[in-house]
Amino acid sequence: MRILYDSLTGFWRETAKTFKILSRNKMGLFGFFIVILIILISVFGPLLWPPEASANVAEINKGISARHWLGTDFQGQDNLRKIVNGGKDIVVIALLTGVLSMLIAVVVGSFSAFIGGTVDSILMEFVNIWLTIPKFPLLAVLATVLSLKNVAMLSVLMAILDWPALARQVRSQVLSLKNREYIEAATMLDFGTPRIIFRELLPNMMSFVAISTIFEMTHAIYQQTGLVFLGIVPYSSANWGVMISAAERRGVLFNPQASWSILAPMAAIILFQLGLVSFARSLDEVFNPRLRTSV
Amino acid sequence: MTTITTTPAIPRRTLSNTLQKITSNYLLQKLARALFSIWLVTTITFFVIRAMPGNAVDILIQELTAQGVSPEDAKNQAAALMNIDLNQPLSGQYLDYLGNVMHGDLGNSYKSAGLSVTKMITQVLPWTLFSVGLSLLITFVLGIALGAIMAYKRDTWIDHVLSNLAATLDAISPYLIGLLAILLLGLTWKVVPIMEMRGAMSPGMKPGFTIAFLADIFKHVRVLLLVYVLSSIGSWMLQMKSNTVATLGEDYVTVARARGLTDGRILTAYVGRNATLPLFTRLAISVGFVVGGSVLLETLFTYRGVGFLLARSISERDYPVMQGVFLIITVAVVFANLLADYVYGWLDPRVRISGGDN
């Protein structure tokens, strides 16, 4: 009990300290709150404010008004309401892809660094080759031919395509940590590679893992909205990416009156991406003190 | 005066020695890697198009049968389009396919009947090479200049403004930047006539080295160039800034200052060179990123390049074209990488000697 209590208070103290440093970085804190807000709205919003079932012919392509804060789209539906309901796919795919690809990358990258030798050089040669292949066209072709059925399958495909770049970063991170004294001590005590990786190494590179996961998330958002724009993956009708491409196809780009129905989902995606990136950058500053004081 | 006499060890010419020399040669290593990636992609596309359940050939046969073609004819037509002998075992088909690809034979289009995929690609490839190449050049030069300025003026307002701008541009998807450009430049401010800019050149324009032609293709490509540059310059600026800051702390820069060299000389001969070198390895990844983005951006701007062709073949489910264009895109990117590697090896002999691995 005592140990549990100690570790919990220790964890709490560390988190509080992190937030204290984080709160000094206004951009980072802002980004963090934006991300949390978007996730909360996307998860709970649809329950409180479900999507409109039918089109509203009387109010097609209206601008901003007291009734419609972000105007209405080509079906006369409220843009703000569609934004609230359209975030779930984006958030789920971003999270799933980020976590999955990082998971593969951590396992492969750290084992590669630990085993070394021929296995390591073959793996890294493969990663280098994989990096030269243009990912987005490959993803587009694969997604078309495989005709993915749902959000999870798309995430898995993106994770499979994206992990090698992350694995290389994990590997170099592990290589630099590997020669620290506490790792050498653990090796001498013969703890075994899995335990050293998961108990000793990973906790010490958590910040790096978090930052890379976040960057992968923004990349997944980009790829997913791109696939929607190409018409490869229409999942639910109300998704920010679908909103953009539907508006684009309805010729909104040539109709100034309707520009709100394309600006609103764009703003939502850009806010989410900016929030994620500025949060990641501030995490970088918190965990890499070298960056905090300018060189 | 003492003379040191050493007998240099003469390396024996054995087969393994020669082999080792070849494998440790920087340029050969890179060439082998490039060829291997092309083979890998060719193989992946073959198996995706041909061998997976629900693959493209089966779908093609189904579609043709649905149009009223008899199953036997449908199979023959599909085989002719994809340039595949369906009666052979998979391994034989694979070898045939590899042979065809090496001869530049990529099959025929399914939707635009009778048009060979190779011909379709050669018509559009120059436009993508032109727009992507030019934008990479502009981004590289501009990114290096701005990054160096940020490093020299670090912690002043210039640095803060540029850093935040770079981070913001880096975070936003290229295709959203493209949409914003159309909305702002074409619709709100009406600076450029977006409608007239469709295509890579105006209809009726004769290609050639005339001023009118060059002005026309520039008119069509300018917004696309702007979007390419904006969407990839952020990471160059940030990278160049951190490289320059690191280089400024090096001893040889301090020594150069102590020797009283002018700031301009230090910037060009000492700091600039060493800070720019690592960026060449990033060029490789950037090429793939920009070409990947061209699938979306060329479609958005109706700029008839390779990316546009890929997007159209995807939406029409024109599998032979899709497969061919994807292969060409990959080959182009891989060779661009190879070129970047060669330039890097030429600029920085250290990598050539140490074998080229980081």
What does this structure look like?
- The complex is a heterodimer of chains A (295) and B (358).
- Chain A has 295 residues and is mainly alpha-helical.
- In chain A, helix 4 (88-115) packs antiparallel against helix 5, helix 6 (135-146) packs antiparallel against helix 7 (151-178) and helix 10 runs parallel beside helix 11.
- Chain A is built from 13 helices and no strands.
- Chain A has helices at 2-24, 26-48, 79-85, 88-115, 117-132, 135-146, 151-178, 181-188, 193-201, 206-229, 240-249, 260-287, 289-292.
- Residues 291-295 of chain A have low confidence and may be disordered.
- Helices cover 75% and strands 0% of the residues of chain A.
- Chain A starts with a helix and ends with a helix.
- Chain B is mainly α.
- Helices cover 73% and strands 0% of the residues of chain B.
- Chain B is built from 15 helices and no strands.
- In chain B, helix 2 (26-51) packs antiparallel against helix 14 (319-347).
- Chain B is globular.
- Chain B starts with 14 loop residues before the first helix and ends in a 5-residue tail after the last helix.
Helix and strand arrangement:
The complex is a heterodimer of chains A (295) and B (358).
Chain A: H1 2-24, H2 26-48, H3 79-85, H4 88-115, H5 117-132, H6 135-146, H7 151-178, H8 181-188, H9 193-201, H10 206-229, H11 240-249, H12 260-287, H13 289-292
Helix pairs in contact in A: 2-12, 4-5, 4-7, 4-10, 5-7, 6-7, 7-10, 8-9, 10-11, 10-12, 11-12
Chain B: H1 15-23, H2 26-51, H3 56-66, H4 71-82, H5 90-102, H6 117-152, H7 157-171, H8 174-188, H9 211-248, H10 251-258, H11 263-276, H12 279-300, H13 306-315, H14 319-347, H15 349-353
Helix pairs in contact in B: 2-5, 2-14, 3-4, 6-7, 6-9, 6-12, 6-14, 7-9, 8-9, 8-12, 9-11, 9-12, 10-11, 12-13, 12-14, 13-14
